[in-house]
Amino acid sequence: MKNQAAYKMPLFDRIFKPKTLVLANGHTVQQPRSRMPLIALLILVLIYLSVKLTGFDLSIIARRGHQFTVILSQIFSPDVFNITAKAFEQAVLDPAAVNFLSIFDGRWWNALWYTMNHSFAPNVFKPLWDTLRMSILGSFIGSTIALPIAVAASTNINRNKLSVTLIRLILNIVRTLPTLVIAKIFALIFGLGTYAGTMAILVFTLGVITKMMYESIETIDMGAFEAMESFGANKFQAFWSACMKQILPTYLSYCLYALEMNVRAASILGYVGAGGLGLLIDERIGWRDYNGLGTVLVMLFILVVTIEHLSQYLRKKLS
After folding, report:
1. Domain check: are 177 and 281 in the same one?
2. Residue 158 counted as domain residue
3. Residues 44, 188 within the same domain
4. Does 137 lie in the same domain as 46?
């Protein structure tokens, strides 16, 4: 009876009274009304308001949507693979005779090699190398600094609530800033180039790795750590001996994952002058050279896939 008296009927059921059903034995039960019509109405209202506030217009998509496929067709036809008539002429190969079996013909490879050398691809190698260097160096330094900060931000290691709160507050601020904003700030401080990009990736990696690591540290078994402290070891000695072995595979896995993310992120930092492929991508889009843009994206795709497969292989070994 007390539970029934304490029960407070939801506002929806007070407005839309439940239906009373009579059972075969003469007892009655209350069947609440379905909330689905109200939910559907709210969704429709939100969609309508979103369309009005954003100025979304389906007629624009109907008129200009075909341009999307036109641009994509050029992007997916990078000039690095478009063998020109001059390339066939240089290789002494008849374009009409080219078929699947041509891949076994050295002249076809000569034509492809000539095309690659005269495409936009040679201009991509240095920015691509800069992107890789920024990613690796920024990830390495950021991951290295992140570990001691993560230890200091863990409540089961650091019992000082004030310092833990302060460290986590600073980390939240760091993670709130987008990588492009961080890169822009460093470009203004240190000048244009890969140094600003490396610093931006370092800060981004620091924020991400630290967050994931202190959450992992707080879940480990603390028995050995407390035993080491009881024997007179300081916190560093106790953590290194008792906890490091527990978190090392997870830590290295997070570092590899951060490297994967950073290769992708570094490719657009050139938009704010932080070096890498971003400047080339912006330049090709500005010149409407979508075939050249396709070449940049193909080479970036190869790099990202290579890094990702290597990272997955190493993570499997760690696990």
Report:
1. yes
2. yes
3. no
4. no
What total number of domains does the chain contain?
A: 2
pLDDT tens, per residue, the chain with 319 residues: 445 555 577 777 777 888 887 777 878 888 888 888 889 999 999 999 998 898 888 788 888 877 778 888 888 888 877 777 777 677 767 676 676 666 677 777 777 777 778 778 888 888 899 889 999 999 999 999 999 999 999 988 888 899 999 999 999 998 888 888 888 898 888 888 888 889 999 999 999 999 999 999 988 888 888 888 888 888 888 888 888 888 888 899 899 889 988 988 888 888 887 778 888 888 888 888 888 888 898 888 998 889 888 888 888 887 6
Nearest to 305 by CA among 253, 267, 264: 264
CB 269 within 8 A of CB 276: yes
Cα end-to-end span (Å), the chain:
55
Of 56, 71, 101, the position where a domain reaches its end is: 56
Strand runs labelled E in the chain: 19-22, 28-31
Residue 71 lies in a domain: no
Question: Residue 48's domain spans which residues?
Answer: 1-56
3-state DSSP percent of the chain in helix, strand and coil, to 5: 75, 5, 25
Same domain membership, residue 311 and residue 171: yes
